[in-house]
Amino acid sequence: MIPSHRIEIVIEEPWAPELIRVLKQLHVPGYTVIPRAGGSGDRGIRRGDELAGDSSNCVFIIACEDES
């Protein structure tokens, strides 16, 4: 097993395509997306079952082998 760093990015779902574009520009070899993530934070409760999806979050998980 290769030591790696785990990066988690939580963003609003409508921004996911833009983040994917940036990850491709940075030559990130892979990532995992967990759509419609729910929870509570500084902006209150975010539900994962919103019908419109406008205010839903998604989580990107990226594993990096080195810090660069």
Written description of the protein model:
- The chain has 68 residues and is mostly beta strands.
- Helix content is 15%, strand content 41%.
- Strands 1-5-2 form a three-stranded antiparallel β-sheet, with no helix packed on it. Strands 3-4 form a two-stranded antiparallel ribbon.
- The longest helix is centred in the first third of the chain and has 10 residues, at 16-25.
Give the termini separation.
19 Å
Q: What is the arithmetic mean of pLDDT?
A: 83
**Biggest sheet features:** 3 strands, antiparallel
How big a fraction of the residues is strand? 35-45%
Q: What order do the helices and strands come in, and which of them pair?
A:
Layout: E1 5-12, H1 16-25, E2 32-37, E3 39-41, E4 44-46, E5 57-64
